[in-house]
Amino acid sequence: MAALARALPTPLHNPMPEYEDVLPSSSSSSSALPVGPQIPKYGSRKGWKPKTALDFNGGGAYPECHIAQYPLDMGRKKTGTGTTLALQVDQDGLVRYDAIAQHGRAAGSKVQSSFKDLVPLANRTDVSESEREMERPDASSINDTAERTRLALERITHGKIKAAQPKHVPKTNNDATYIRYTPANQGSGEGKQRIIKMTEVQEDPLEPARFKHKKIPRGPAEPPPPVLQSPPRPATAQDQKDWMIPPCISNWKNNKGYTVPLDKRLAADGRGLQDVHINDNFAKFSEALYVADRHAREEVRARAQMQQLLAQKEKAQKEENLRLLAQKAREERSGITSSAPSAGATAPPKELGMGLGGYDSASEDESDADEGSEEEEDEEAIREREQVRNEKRKEREKEMRMSNMGSEMRTKMLAREANRDISEKIALGLAKPTAAKETLLDSRLFNRESLSTGFASEDSYNLYDKPLFQGSSAAAAIYKSAGSGKGNDESYGGGTEEGIRNELEKDRFNLGKATKGFEGADSSEAREGPVQFEKDTIIALDGTSDPFGVESFMNAAKKGGKRVNEDRDEERRKRARDD
Length: 579
Description:
Residues 292-319 form a coiled coil. One of its GO terms (biological process) is mRNA splicing, via spliceosome. By secondary structure, this protein is mostly helical. The chain has helices at 2-7, 26-29, 99-102, 129-132, 139-164, 237-243, 262-269, 280-334, 343-346, 364-372, 374-404, 407-418, 422-428, 472-479, 486-491, 497-505, 550-558, 560-578, and strands spanning 177-181, 194-198. It has 18 helices and two strands. It has a two-stranded antiparallel ribbon. The protein is elongated, with a radius of gyration of 67 Å.
């Protein structure tokens, strides 16, 4: 055996592991050593974790091991290969970014991802001479490559030919069939056995069908099974009402233009099919709003009453002070001086406090202070009385001037005051508002006729229903001379005829002298009122008013052909005359 072992060559692969321990005796060699991991016995597997497939020994999971177990890889989620690239470096320690370009390609493919790949091999310094010499393929590899190429091209060609051929062509059996025929009449001379060749007759594919196929009508079906039901009975009115389904009526479209009653439309709407439940919070909210509004109104009313009461007290206090001042002034003017003025005459009522303009006379110190300020109050009262006297005097002088004024000046002044804006009247003190409610309405609008619906006739172009200054008095007051006052002599050239003529001839505005005046302006007369203008009216041929000249335009359009002929005749006459 030792000689045989030495004669045999050394094995390339050693499937059995080499054990350092050598079995001492042959008796121990008979006992097989356990191969693979040692699996603990049942009951002593606490803390043991089966991880590999060898731990299960081809069996199932261990129920006493409370971990995730995958015997024979059952239940394990298969995770695909990831697309994340590992960081690679070259021999110089630099990161290889060209791995991104080579990712996903075949194993034998080469990607030119650097600059040196573009340099020819003859010019590269990092390539040796042996690497530059490319080995040529041998004849066998060339033949194999050519054969594979030919087969691939034939496969492509046959595929295209089959795709172009029809697929549903019926197959015809053109093979001949040979039949041995033995005639039945053996007595005659023709009763010899012979072989007959049977072939199918060639048919024209474009020949129409010789026979017409006709569908056979379907036979009668089986009778339906009998249905046991109650005899029919007529429907009552209640049944018809219950079975009545309202038609579908759209709330948006009515293409046919039907007139649907309101009750039918509401019935089709389906509003009565469900009960309407209103939340109680709506009533609570409305009640809360009503209570809040009532409280607010009560507070506003109480505040208004308090303000009115305070105003009345303040007014009464002012009147009492003015009465006392007037009484004191009358006594001083008449020379009657009271040695000891009464407490009621010098002091305001006790119920009025300091906030209302009164003085509290509860203490003697305050009464002494009031007596010390009497002189200042007297001077102020004197100034107020003088101011009132001046205003009264001015009003009397104004009334006297108006009474002595002529009718024309009075009319002018009344018109000026009537046309004043309310803001001007308030600024000048002419507005006299009263507390009466009737003055809130303009009395000038009373007894006035309202405008009609059409306002005016259809052929009228008036913008106003009446003149601006209606009445001779207003017009005369505006346009008539004011009399022989001081300013009239200057404005009218001294009032003489020569002065007036000179003033009219002056070119005050540097406009130059007009070459032609207005028609009818030479024989002018003195005017008593404003200038009256006449409306420029266009009269049609039928005598009606034509403000826009429509009738004349239509007549000219109708006569257009005749006018063209007249123009041609006139042009012909001119040419003949020139010749």
